[in-house]
Amino acid sequence: MFLENPPVTASAPSKSPTGARGKRTFDITPYLYVLPAIALLVVWIYKPLAQTIELSFYDWNLLPTSPKTFVGLQNYVDVLALPELHAALANTGLYILAGFFFLILLPTAVVLLTRQIGGRARTAYQAIIFIPFLVTPIATSAIWRWLFAPEGGLITQGASALGIELGNVFRDPELSLWAVVVIVGWQMLGFGVLVISAGYTGISPDYADAAATDGASNAQIIRRISLPLLSPTLVFLALMTVLLVAQWSYPVIDTLTKGGPSSSSTNIYYLLYQFGFQNFDSGLSSAAGTLFFIAFAVIAAVFVELSERVAFFDN
To answer: d(Cα 158, Cα 101) in Å, to the nearest integer?
Structure first.
């Protein structure tokens, strides 16, 4: 016995993002949550950036009573011709190369050599290495100034006992830059160790155990497993080194060497400070800052593309 056509029951209308007349409604609520962050970015980041680019086309001495004079691209031409800029760029390159050693190579070696340490011992050594990063650069510079003091400094006396006369390291054109490199590297080492340790902790130990079971040596495990899986962390640290090591060295330079002697230890950020707040040439400083911003933006884009190509992720 077959039933005839069953009765059709009315169903409740389903909810949809469209209105009664088929128009899609716009919910502004999610955007209100990010509005304060966007406002702060506009006020503290994008507005000053726009003002810097604007000032790069004017000649102005920062005095409110002094009028701005439009000079077009002349500030860019002048800043590119300055020998001080060439010296600052060369020194910045040396700071970055030294940063690769202190923030990538040396921390990677420390983490890989101490990866078998566990428990409180690992926490203790990580804390000892990371503590210098927590000290303010001004306090760090004051301590190192005392250690390198020409008369009575512990390092100076120790070197003298070994027959090495250091003299005033921070006033020596051949030693001042390397003194800043050592100080900044000593302080930033803990940051590199902490980041790489975090990246290494995220690697599953099953890979190394399986490779060891198959007869792989420790060197092979490091070269073929640990380093490839650490590649996202290493690329991130490389980007941070290029973008930030010159900023990290600025307070040490300002406190100990003032960029000298004869611009032997200056970098691009201290040069910007000299242009803007010692020479009161806002146009020249803004032009140099705009050029550096464009250069670092290109470098950041290259590193982002590089991370997509060479970084190996543990999926």
So the answer is: 25
pTM of the model: 0.82
305 Cβ contact list (under 8 Å, min separation 6): none
Q: What is the pLDDT of residues 186-240, one digit of tens each?
A: 989 988 988 888 888 888 888 888 888 888 888 888 888 888 888 888 888 998 8
DSSP state of 18: B
Would you give the distance in Å from CA 164 to the centre of its chain? 35
Distance CA 159, CA 150 (A): 11
Q: Where are the domains of the chain?
A: 85-263
Closest CA to 311 of 235, 198, 225: 235
Q: How far is CA 59 from CA 52, 56, 83, 108, 288, in A?
A: 12, 8, 20, 47, 13
| Residues 246, 96 contacting (CB under 8 angstroms) | yes
- CATH assignment, 85-263: 1.10.3720.10
